[in-house]
Amino acid sequence: MPEALAFFRGKIVPLEDARVSITTHALHYGTAVFEGIRGNWNEEQRKLYVFRMREHYERLLQGCKMMLMDIPYSVDDLCGITIELLQSCAYRQDLYIRPIVYKSEELVANLKLHELESDFSLVTVPFGNYIEADGAIRCRTSSWRRIDDTAIPPRVKISGHYVNSILAKTEATLAGYDEAIMLNQDGNVSEGSGENLFLVADGAIHTPLVSENNLKGITKDSVTKIAAREMGLGIVERSIRRSELYLADEVFLTGTAAHITPVGELDNRPIGSGDQGPVTSRLRDYYLDIIKGGNPDYLDWCAEVPMEA
Ligand code: PMP
């Protein structure tokens, strides 16, 4: 039987025992850095694969550097802890894996990061689709602008900056759309509330630069490499204006949770045919196979969790 467990204060404990105090600094100020990683169950092989685990932990440690957080673990240590937790939980299904480094000090009135202790915790939960809609989704340009690197660095996953994404996602879904597309302060396209964005026009793929204040996405990196290797398509990173999205042949979003999600409509205008386009469709097929360890050419992206038969 799978067990709900967490890695908490240096050891694996029942999930219900992994609790923090109401005075924890991170709860009051969003002073935490986290990751979202997927564990993908391959039913045919009866194996669980963690997708691009190293790259996620590298980004986590980059966030720690920005937030002056010291934890006594290297990328190798964090990968080892993750594998150990997944072996102990013994889930045989798709999972979401959530590591978090947080300012754990139980003292609220101190705004000096360098004086505050940090701790690392890890949980994993069964996880299916993030975006519920089947096929191409309906998006809306958010009235909330993407936070700027001059305010809070958006390229890493700092908990506090997710208020920006959450305001945008909430606005879009309350208005009946599936997802928000955010512009930055200059009016350039930045990203979705939890996904990077690509457009296809005249057979070429384009995506905003990281300097447009989006997260440095690992799925984005995977898509870039798959497009080049499997389809001979280079990706142009450049500034993109909102109106270009309306006129694109295809738009799609990428993220660990959202995989590759086609955008069929933006601000009530159909994009291309209004359905999943051919480039998105091919990339998606490759991607969904690769993350489950189904493509031998990409097994170095997939860490297998050794499990008892
Ligand atoms: N942008 C934001 C704001 C996100 O939260 C995510 C999800 N982590 C992404 C983009 C996609 O990043 P990744 O492909 O690394 O999951």
Describe the structure.
This protein is of the alpha+beta class and 309 residues long. The chain folds into two domains: 122 residues, Aminotransferase class 4, branched-chain amino acid transferase, N-terminal domain (D-amino Acid Aminotransferase, Chain A, domain 1), CATH 3.30.470; 155 residues, D-amino Acid Aminotransferase, Chain A, domain 2 (Alpha-Beta Barrel), CATH 3.20.10. Helices cover 26% and strands 28% of the residues. It contains seven helices and 17 strands. The strands form two sheets. Strands 8, 9, 10, 11, 12, 13, 14, 15 and 16 form a nine-stranded mixed beta sheet that branches. β8, α4 and β9 form a beta-alpha-beta unit. The two termini are 13 Å apart. The mean pLDDT is 97.
Number of spatially distinct domains:
2
- Count of strand segments: 17
Helix-strand string: EEHEEEHHEEEHEEEEHEHEEEHE
CATH top level assignment of the largest domain: Alpha Beta
| CATH H-level superfamily of the largest domain | D-amino Acid Aminotransferase, subunit A, domain 2
Query: What is the assembly state of the chains in this entry?
Result: single chain
Strand content: 25-35%
Radius of gyration: 20 Å
CATH topology of the largest domain: D-amino Acid Aminotransferase, Chain A, domain 2
Average pLDDT over all residues: 97
Enumerate the spans where pLDDT stays under 50 for 5 or more consecutive residues.
none
Structural class: alpha+beta
Number of helices: 7
| Distance from first to last alpha carbon | 13 Å
CATH architecture type of the largest domain: Alpha-Beta Barrel
Largest beta sheet, briefly? 9 strands, mixed
